[in-house]
Amino acid sequence: MKILVxxxxxxxxxxxxxxxxxxxxxDHCVEALPDSPANGxxxxxxRVLANTTLDLAREAIAKAGRVDGVxxxxxxxxxxxxxRNGTPVGPALGWQDLRTIGECFMAREHNxxxxxxxxxxxxxxxxxxxxxxxSRDLLIGTVxxxxxxxxxxxxxxxTDATNVGITGLAEIxxxxxxxxxxxxxxxxxxxxxAIVPSxxxxxxxxxxxxxxxxxxxLGDQQASLAGQACVHTGDAKITFGTGGMLNVNLGDLAxxxxxxxxxxxxxxxxxxxxxxxxxxxxxxxLAAGTNVQWLRDDLQxxxxxxxxxxxxxxxxxxxxxxxxxALMGLGTPNWDYGAxxxxxxxxxxxxxxxxVRAVLEGVAHRGADLLDAAIADCGxxxxxLRIDGGMSDNPTFVQALANTTQRPVEISxxxxxxxxxxxxxxxxxxxxxxxxxxLTTTWEPRARxxxxxxxxxxxxxxxxxxxxxWIPALSSxxx
Length: 479
What we know:
Elements: E1 2-8, E2 12-19, E3 24-31, E4 43-44, H1 46-64, E5 69-74, E6 79-83, E7 92-93, H2 101-107, H3 120-130, E8 138-142, H4 143-151, E9 158-160, H5 161-164, H6 179-184, E10 194-196, E11 199-204, E12 213-219, H7 220-227, E13 236-240, E14 244-251, E15 266-273, E16 276-285, H8 289-298, H9 307-312, E17 322-324, E18 342-344, H10 352-378, E19 385-388, H11 395-405, E20 409-411, H12 418-429, E21 447-449, H13 457-467, H14 472-475
Parallel strand pairs: 1-5, 5-12, 9-10, 13-19, 19-20
Antiparallel strand pairs: 1-2, 2-3, 4-7, 6-8, 11-12, 13-14, 14-16, 15-16, 17-18, 20-21
Helix pairs in contact: 1-4, 7-12, 8-10, 10-11
């Protein structure tokens, strides 16, 4: 049994073919960066993205042979509007795009609270710009919808709860679109996709050789949660990539509100299989690996990201130097867009090793912040953390994370677990697994790191407080 996984991310597209033993039979990734025509604007050509994805899919099948199903994992909330003939009306708006801040504040007049990184006002902006009188017969979708539509030759206009839950356009159950919100933003009901399970026979990829079924749709973070077999209540993972995302499985503990929780976390659908939704919680670091890139590309005190471990290992501790990683502000739990990165405690004896270690430990402390916020908001015990992403390869960082969280840290057997998770949900649809819980048998961490020291979390909180509200006008913005 073979699964083709199409992983359409923010900066690249991957096509991988995995066997039912999760062995990789083919894997090819190409860069697909969005454009940023002005400060705060992030957009991309949806037709180019679809063509790139289809080309990679066809190449994968040509090299690995026909597949039994196609699983799709995508960046969430990025929004496309297109004609029924497949022509986008204009640029697609990336999830990072901030052009609709004004629309978000205007939506509050209707008692609608959405953020610019959600899909709601992106779709509104696209329609207001390209169909102001709502006379055109258009379709609206997130990236999963757009890719599935193209794979099926326009037959499948679908999305799933993991993507719907990030749009700001759904009822709290994530089973139906919220008609009140659609009407307030003047989004035609007929333009919205059908909401389907995350795993199942969801459509036919008729444009591919053999016309395999589309068997899984997942947002990228939920796919990573599945890829690290976080299938039981209290299982949690953090993906440390450019940013950082903690997701925790809450089982059948459904949210009571769709807005941000008291400690800055968000309710999500972890996935939906059949009629059963598994719920989850998400907390966010706006900049994680970006801080290591800053050391490399801007400060130029390391040559490669991997070297950060070697340099940090040259000192036993930071010498009471603290780094707050807030290059783009602070996410959970603070949500302070005006906070800025800061180094505290520098002395004449501070050298390159101490600064590099302080940066790695600062990101680890932010990981502990995500964990603390999640536990406070959901009340579920989290006994261990699973991690993937580029920073999971850094031993100094992983040990610091274990120490700041006082939890064992299990490192994913694959650096990026998203593709693996999408494949697992595809195999579930094809009957290779009987239940989601069986996915736990696939978890074999590369390593398990135990805490070996304690850290001063109170001193960390003081550093965060001092780095906060550096730009008051930005700090006052709250979504």
